[in-house]
Amino acid sequence: MVNKSKTFFYSDIPLAQRMRPTTLEQVIGQTHLLAPGAPIRRFVEHGHLPSLILHGEAGIGKTTIAMLLADAVNRPFYPLSAINTGVKQLREVLDAGQKSGQSGLDFAPPVVFIDEIHRFNKAQQDALLGAVESGDITLIGATTENPSFSVNNALLSRCQVYRLEPLTEEQIEKLVQRAIIEDKFLSKLNIQLQATSQIAKLAHGDARKSLNLLEMAIQAADHNQSPLLIDDELLSRVAQTALQRYDKDGDQHYDIISAMIKSVRGSDPDAALYWMARMLVAGEPPEFIARRLVILASEDIGNANPNALLLADAALRSVKMIGMPEARIILGQVVVYLATSAKSNSTYLAINKAMQLAQQDQSPVPLHLRNGVTKLMQSQGYGEGYLYPHDYPNHYQPQQYLPDNLIGTQFYHYADNQREQHSFKFMHWLQAQSNSNQFNDE
Questions:
Q1: How far apart are CA 388 and CA 430, in angstroms?
Q2: Domain 167-243 falls under CATH 3.40.50.2000
Q3: DSSP letter string over 160-191?
Q4: What is the second-level CATH architecture of the domain 366-441?
Q5: Which of 177, 251, 410, 438 could cross-link with 57 by S-S, CB 3.0 to 4.6 Å?
Q6: Where does residue 158 rank: exposed (0-12), middle (13-18), buried (19+ CB within 10 A)?
Q7: Tens digit of each residue's pLDDT (9 = 90 or more) over 226-275
Q8: What is the pTM of this model?
Q9: CATH topology for 20-163?
Q10: Which CA distances in Å does 248 have to 70, 308, 334?
Q11: Distance of CA 389 to the CA centre of its chain
């Protein structure tokens, strides 16, 4: 029970909200974007604000900066959340922006801020394209995910993308000290803060979390004492599970799964087990982990050990059927197996190269590879000259499979692991046998 003494002043508004900056000059951190001469500051100084995507972890000021930018260039501000905004609500805001554009040459488009824009589906993101391109609105999107993967390319091409950085421990300490001095409630208390550095460490660059920790500690302190002591012991006691950095719906969801994948890729089973355990303890669905392991088995192990994909796929099906807590045993086995397996990304690189070329090249299929299922097709040369490999020794006969303009193109390169080198030697043996048979026939 919090001791509500007469000396403690309460507010229904959280400290983090009360300390939200009201000008760009008050923002702590993000100097690479907001300092004099920095990109976003230059926009504001010229009274211009392009559409932006702000990318970074939770609690580092994306929403605040969006609000302040709109205010700095005297634009109306329409905040939306991708979590609870449908296409209908989105179109209403876009229509309002379009109507306000009928005021003539002095029209300044409203700023439409979309928090967690990565949660918008393709239809919702596409709905923004016309308004952004026509200048009816200025879009500012905020995302904790890499926008290269979570925002479609058409929208990205119409926006400037900027990465916001977590606050340093020094910046967090400055923010906490400012709160004690400037907040109208905390400034009335005689606070002796000895846990500044501890708050900075526990916040991990998250400004909102640092202020929440401070507020929790102040609420739990003994208000019959003066000064009001906030030390490391009190902070550790009140924080408890709140200090868990993992949030399965937020940025840590992606940070920790990334750490696990990189640990498996780097052949470190202990680190991989640790990061996976962090997710399981925090309540991450085991199916999510299993799905990522299936992808990893193909991307990072591939043909160096084809059994890796089979085992990962079996684990995914088993985890779905069994569930926690027993699913942890299956996942642990698979993670160790994958981490200690030979690695290769040769097929991953090969399909990426092929996909990239396929976007640029639409060469016709050579006639001999086409299926001549009708007499008309056969009369046009479909299937003519095709060599059926099973009719030849070793079930192999060289012939042209790529279009004329791509002959000699190579996507796949055999990696230096035992299995792929075995395949490499086998293919060379096949080619040598074919050449030998051809020579003998001649």
A1: 16
A2: no
A3: EEEEPPPPPHHHHHHHHHHHHHHSTTGGGS-E
A4: Orthogonal Bundle (1.10)
A5: 251
A6: middle
A7: 888 888 888 888 776 444 445 555 556 778 888 999 999 999 999 999 99
A8: 0.56
A9: Rossmann fold (3.40.50)
A10: 31, 27, 22
A11: 45
